[in-house]
Amino acid sequence: GGQILFEGADLATAPAGRAPALLGRARTLAEGATARFAPGLWTASAGPTTVWGVLGKPEVAEEEVAAGAAIRAMAIGGGMPAPWFVAIPGAGLWSSRDEGTTWQRCPGLPDDVLALRMIPTKPGGVIAATADGCRVSTDGGQTWEDRGGGLEEVRYLHAIEVKPDEPDILLAGAAPHAPSPSGAAPLEGLGFALFESTNAGKTWTPVRRGFPVDLGHDVITDIRFDPVAPDNVVVALASGELWVSSNAGAYWSPLSLQT
């Protein structure tokens, strides 16, 4: 097991303090990177010389995770103090209120949290895509609400996204169950599809309007609204396919197709 290193090139010019220095890279890691969490987390100090220091780490019991388990997702919330979040496969979601010095497991969540998004304009708002549905917190991860009307048959959420200028609009990649640990898909396919909510996750409906009804053996791995032009949104699939909408999901078309 290695260590998670926040790249220091763009952090050295950040304001003093660990939270500002970590913010940009933590968000980058939350947007798709995978990093080892054992034996620790590291941060870069600001100044003319980059100095690395070790942070605290979630005290995860060995029996909860496989050897060399990875941090799957990271996010930094709003407010003061800003909560930090890390999701560990098989060991749930953990938060820190002291810039990574100590960590506590977030109660009320499944063991597998697959993606995290902060809710714009709501400092305590966090949305988690889990192996058992969509969960929403409005108090910085202290309590969670299961929001999944319409997802009863597709509780496995692998990706989730919030529209930056309209935070009640959500997109999620959902399936009836998790892919096999071996990576092999069943003959009947995985059943992944794109779902949307216009009321902050209270109810969901499948997306059509040009998007495939069933992705067969493919997995929705990520969903991104353009923060500068939020009507532009891209859905990434494990096969390398990309689907795009330039009108906030009113219609979809392939940007890159697997051949």
Total beta strand runs: 20
Report low-confidence residues grouped into runs of 5 or more: 1-39
> Reading side by side through the largest sheet, how are the strands ordered?
5-6-7-8
Q: Note the beta-strand portion.
A: 25-35%
N/C terminus separation: 36 Å
Based on secondary structure, the structural category is: mainly beta
Helicity, as a percent range: under 10%
Contiguous helical run count = 1
The coarse overall form would be globular
Spatial extent as radius of gyration: 18 Å
Overall mean pLDDT: 81
User: Could you give a short account of the major beta sheet?
Assistant: 4 strands, antiparallel
SSE pattern: HEEEEEEEEEEEEEEEEEEEE
Give a brief outline of the structure:
This protein has 259 residues and is mainly β. It has one helix spanning 18-30; strands at residues 35-36, 42-44, 52-54, 70-71, 73-76, 84-88, 92-96, 104-105, 113-118, 126-130, 133-137, 145-147, 156-162, 170-175, 193-197, 205-206, 220-225, 233-237, 242-245, 253-256. A four-stranded antiparallel beta sheet has the order 5-6-7-8. The chain has a four-stranded antiparallel beta sheet with strand order 9-10-11-12, with no helix packed on it. Strands 13-14-15-16 form a four-stranded antiparallel beta sheet, with no helix packed on it.
